[in-house]
Write a structure and sequence with these properties.
alpha/beta, Rossmann fold, 11 strands, about 20% strand
C-alpha cells in the first residue's frame, strides 16, 4: 500500500544503479512504498541502519532491473528522498570509460556533467513556478571528498574528478558518437545521472557520484565494443567494491554536520513573483518552498 513518509527520519540516501539492488548489513530494515506529486519512485525505499547510521536505499532501475534509463521517474525518486529527510545522496552508477587511462574495474568520482538526454523531465518547477538554480559545480565537494577517502581506504583504483556525459540510451553509442565525445575530453559515459543530479540540486540535497567503470564504450580499437555480457562480467567485481566503499563512507558522512551550500540552492533561485504562485503549486511544491517562507498573495 502506498503511503506518505514523514521527514526527518534519515539524512543519508544511496541510489543504486545497475547491479546494486540492495546493501548488506542493514539492520532494523523497513520498506517505504511512497507516492509523490510526481508519481511513484522506481521501487520501495529500503530504510535501515548501517554501522549506526540511518540510511535510505533506492534501486534506481527497480529490483530485478525493470526500468530502462528513460523510464525512470527521477523526479519521484528525488522527491521521495527529500520527503524522508535525506540531505545527502550517494549515486552509484555503471559507466563506460572514454579514456585509455580509466580502465574497467576503476572507480571515477566525476565533478562535472554534460547532459545529452532528450525526453526526461528535468525540473520540479513548472506550471506557473520558475526557478533557476546554480549548477556550475554540480557535485557536492563534501560528499565527493568523503567518497575519495573511502576509495583510498578500500584500495580502489580511483580517479578523482572528471566529466560524466549522460546519453539518452537505452542503446549504446555509435562509434562516431563515441569518438566525438572523446574529442570533447569527457572521462566516462552513462545513462542515468541526468537529470538526477539537477533534481537533487533543486531539492537542495548534496549529491555525488561513485561511477563504476565496466567497459571502454565502443571507441577502443583493441577492445571489444561494449555489450551487456561484457558489462555484467565486470559489474560483479565493481559492485563488491562499491559495497565496501559504502561501508567505509557511510559512518563518515553520518557523523559529519550537513552545512553545505547545496542546501541553500533555492534561496535566490525562484524568479516567479510570490503572489503569482497558485495555491495548488504551493501545495505541490511545499516540500521545497515552505523553507523559503515566500509571502502569499496579499501579504508583503
Amino acid at each position: 500500500m502506498a503511503r506518505k513518509a514523514s521527514r526527518g527520519q534519515v539524512s543519508l540516501g544511496v541510489i543504486g544503479g545497475s547491479g546494486l539492488y540492495d546493501i548488506e548489513g542493514l539492520t532494523a530494515v523497513r520498506d517505504a512504498r511512497m507516492r509523490t506529486p510526481f508519481g511513484v519512485p522506481s521501487d520501495a525505499i529500503r530504510i535501515g541502519t548501517l554501522d549506526g547510521v540511518a540510511i535510505a536505499f533506492l534501486s534506481r532501475h527497480g529490483r530485478g532491473h525493470r526500468l530502462n534509463p528513460g523510464e525512470i521517474n527521477y523526479r519521484a525518486n528525488i522527491y521521495a528522498m527529500k520527503a524522508l529527510g535525506v540531505q545527502r545522496i550517494i549515486s552509484v552508477s555503471a559507466v563506460g570509460s572514454m579514456k585509455e587511462s580509466i580502465r574497467p574495474g576503476d572507480v571515477v568520482l566525476p565533478d562535472q556533467f554534460i547532459d545529452l538526454t532528450k525526453r526526461r523531465a528535468s525540473t520540479f518547477f513548472e506550471g506557473g513556478v520558475v526557478a533557476h538554480v546554480g549548477f556550475g559545480e554540480p557535485v557536492c565537494p563534501t560528499v565527493a571528498h568523503a567518497l575519495a577517502g573511502a576509495g583510498q581506504q578500500t584500495g580502489a583504483s580511483l580517479h578523482e574528478g572528471g566529466t560524466y556525459i549522460c546519453m539518452e540510451g537505452p542503446q549504446f553509442s555509435t562509434k562516431a558518437e563515441s569518438r566525438l565525445y572523446r574529442q570533447w575530453g569527457v572521462d566516462v559515459i552513462g545513462m542515468t545521472n541526468m537529470p538526477e543530479a539537477k533534481l537533487a540540486r533543486e531539492a537542495e540535497i548534496c549529491y555525488a557520484t561513485m561511477a563504476l567503470v565496466t567497459d571502454y564504450d565502443c571507441w577502443h580499437e583493441t577492445e571489444e565494443a561494449v555489450t551487456v555480457e561484457a558489462i555484467l562480467a565486470t559489474l560483479h567485481q565493481n559492485v563488491a567494491l562499491a559495497k565496501r566503499m559504502l561501508r567505509t563512507v557511510v559512518p563518515r558522512l553520518g557523523a559529519a554536520a550537513s552545512t553545505c551550500g547545496c542546501q541553500q540552492a533555492l534561496q535566490t533561485a525562484i524568479v516567479t513573483a510570490p503572489d503569482r504562485i497558485s495555491p495548488a503549486s504551493r501545495k505541490k511544491l511545499g516540500l521545497f518552498l515552505d523553507r523559503l517562507a515566500l509571502p502569499k498573495k496579499g501579504k508583503r
